[in-house]
Write a structure and sequence with these properties.
The protein is built from three helices and 24 strands. It has 386 residues and is an alpha+beta fold.
Amino acid sequence: MIEFQCLGCGKQLKVKDEVAGKKGKCPKCGAVLLVPSSNIEMLNNESVDVAEHFDSQPVSRVHQSNQALSPQQPQLEHGHVQQAPSVNVHMPKRTSSLGVVSLILGIVALLFCWVPILGLLSLPLSILGVLLAGIGLLVALTRRGAGIGWPIGGGVVSGLALVVALIQVVFIGGAIEAIDQTAEAINQDIEVANQTRQEIVLADGSTESSDSGQADEAHQVAQSDGHQWASAQNAVRQDDIQLRITDVYLGKVPLVSGYDDQETTSENDLLSIGVELVNLSESKKIEYRSWQVRDISFARDYATLRDNFGNNYKRITFGYSAEIVNHTSSDSIYPGKSLSDVLVFELPIDAVGYLDLELPAKNFGGEGMLRLRIPASMIGSRDMTE
């Protein structure tokens, strides 16, 4: 009897001496084997089924065996060495569906998270991607790491998108808060700017606040549009500045040429309003900037004029080619001193009942507005040909 081991499954086989050198199939795994020769000559190479010669019990064939193969000595076939066949075991590759979905959500979120405002939409996508990646990682660990790369990749991409989206949320939140604070500050400034904070100087030298809400006919105080208007027949005061309207007239405006100081007049009749400012302080010098304001002005530092019908009248400037006589663009008012200025507007309509002159107090360092109502009786005319 010849004894040898199957190279495919490692089963120990026994065959009769007369089949030495022939080929046969293993009754267990079906592998074709070359029966090793004993001390007799090799027979021809004709392949025969030697299963009937095997002195072993029949067993069922298996298609796959994870049993480790025992190393065999190389067998001789026709004088050549027959090597043992190599067996490669391929483990099936497994994917993680949760990890795949997490990676897709992370990629979509990462594409949008950089876009301002629109990037906020990536926040729920990235959060969902991180959650799915965490669940997919736990599932992969229970499968001994099969498909673990998908949830790891999805978690990294979704996490990066989440960080960028959160940074954008913080930035936008800070911007909104800054905008709210700015808007609140602007509203406060507007509220302060709309306050009158002026006192009416009476004939006896005493003062009365025009914000008191008492429309005293004797003190010539009027109320309209929610504001108190002092009669232009009285002077008004705010802090150390006292202002009064000296004259209001219709006619051509006297000018001085900006090139050769030659005196001239405006081509058309206009409305001129003369104002006088007095510094009542004993120690404080006050800086004044005219309400006439040349050309373009971006801040509310100019005078406005409106009549009782709601008509607004434009300020008239003459550029740099001519200067209004008695006009002061800016100057310092020393303690106890006064300063004069002239404001020029379009002609009012003939049926005007009164004119409301509004002057920002910021032009002399004050707050709010000075509001003076000029009755039609104060409007005179001046003939420049006299």
